[in-house]
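Sample log: dTTP/UTP pyrophosphatase.
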Amino acid sequence: MAAPLLVLASTSPRRRDLLAQLGVTPHRIAAPDIDETPRKGEAPRAYALRMASEKAEAVPLATGEIALAGDTVVAAGRRILPRAADTAEVAHCLKLLAGRRHRVLSAIALKDDTGHIRTRLSESIVAFAPLDAATITTYATTGDGIGKAGGYAIQGPAGAFVRWMSGSYSGIVGLPLFETRALLLSAGVELG
């Protein structure tokens, strides 16, 4: 039986780069179009898993294809922080995160050509150093945090704000490699 063809249900270059670390190149890339609004009272963990599953579900598959989707959520307590749309949102997120710990939940979902979906979740804790207003403004104006969950990218200049972390670095970046590898192997995907 032939190995399944992987469809990456994400246009994120970071997810493509992380997959490449596993020796995997997607057969094709599909951009899922879903409503990413959290439900009233939805917990961050449930939201991350729902988003990953809905993204995988939104991708039509041909016979022999499987879809891999992911979603990364930054949570301050039970509060789900947005994907920062502009510099003001980046600054707002950093003000909330400065000097405290937060969770980064990275969910992945794998859908086969019968529609069956399997999920995994990586949970990491990140502690930011205290940040003054000038540091926050300077980072926000770089544009690095725009479009990123919680208004920052750990692999960019914001990595200097991290006092310590516990968990999966790749999960914080956007695709937890340990969980992804396990799901792909269980589906028969050949890793490089």
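Observation: The first strand starts at residue 5 and ends at 8.
Observation: Residues 5-186 form a domain with the Maf protein fold (CATH 3.90.950.10).
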